[in-house]
Amino acid sequence: MSHLVRRLTTLASVPVVLLGLVSASAATAAPTTTTATTSARPSVPFPDRIELPDGFQPEGIAIARGTAYFGSRADGDIYAADLRTGRGKVISQGPGTGSLGMKVDSKGRLYVAGAAGGNGRVIDTRTGKVLQSYTFTTKTPTFVNDVILGKDAAYFTDSQQPVFYKVPLGRANAKPQTIALTGDYQHLPGNNANGISLTPDGRALIMVQSSTGFLLRVDPKTGVARRIDLGGALMTNGDGLLLSGRTLYVVQNQLNKIAVVSLDRAGTKGQVVREITSPDFDVPTTMAAFGSHLYLPNARFSTPPTPETAYWVTAVSTKPAKHSMDDGECDPIRFLK
Description:
By secondary structure, the protein is mostly beta strands. It has strands at 49-52, 58-64, 67-72, 78-82, 88-92, 102-104, 109-113, 119-124, 130-135, 144-149, 153-158, 163-168, 177-180, 182-183, 193-198, 205-209, 214-218, 224-227, 238-244, 247-252, 257-263, 270-277, 288-290, 293-297, 311-317. It contains no helices and 25 strands. A five-stranded mixed β-sheet has the order 14-18-17-16-15, with no helix packed on it. It has a four-stranded antiparallel β-sheet with strand order 1-25-24-23, with no helix packed on it. It has a four-stranded antiparallel β-sheet with strand order 2-3-4-5, with no helix packed on it.
C-alpha cells in the first residue's frame, strides 16, 4: 500500500510507567511491587503507522519482543508484524470465526478470544500451532471479546452473555469455568462486558461495559461487580483496556480517543486525567504497549469491509514533554493475589 505515515497528535500532561512483561518465574507468585524493565525502545525511529493486509479487519493486538500480533475478526487469522520494519505475515490460520482480544505470556503463548465462536484458544507464536482450544458456551448469542492473564488463570469476557470465563493456567486439560456477573452489572441490549484488565493491586478484575460506559470492578471468584467511581465520567464506546501502574488506558472506539484514568490502588475509584487522540485513528479498538508508545489497530467499523479495504495500526506516544519514562518491551501483565 502507499499510505503516507501521518504524524500523531498526543494530548499528554503527566508521565506514566509502561511495565515490561514479567519473567516466567514470576508467573508462579504474585508480586508485591512492580518494576519497569530498563531496556528502552531503540533510538532508531519506529514507524507511527503500520499497514496491515487489505481486507484483514483487525481488532485485537498483543506485543512481545518487538513483534505485534493481530487477530482478524473476519476469519480469525493471526498476523505478526515487526514493529521496526512494519513487515509481517500470517502465522496461524483462523477457524473461520473472529479472533478478538489477545494476550501473550512470557513463554510466547498467545491467548485469543474467539468472538461469535464462543471459544478461546492458545497459539504458539513461534510455530503458529494451536496448543489448546476451549469451548466456553454453545448458547447464542455469544461474543467472547477480550482476555487478561492473572497469576493462575486467564479471564475472558463475553459481550452477549452476563458471564465471564476463567481458564486455570498450568494445568493439563484444564476445564473452563463460567462465572455469572451480578451486583451492579445489568445485562442490556448491545455490547456489554468488553475490555478487561486487572486492578492496580492485582486483586480484582476491571471490565468496561460498552452499553453503559461504566467501568466495573469484578470479584474474580464470585462475579460480583461494583461500579468504579469516576466522578460521573462515562467511558462511552469503551473497548480495550490497558493497565500501567495505577493508570488505566481506555479505548473509546467510535470517539477515536483514549481516556487516561488515574485509579486508586484497589481500583474502586478514579479520575479521567487526560485524553490521547490522533488524526490517524479510524475507530481503534484496543491497544498494546511497546516502550513509550501505544499501538492501536483501526477496525474502521463505519467503513463497509471489502477484500480491498485498507487497514492499519497507529502508534501514539504517551511520553510527555520534558519528562523521562521507563520503557518496557511487552504488554503490561499484572497478577491476581
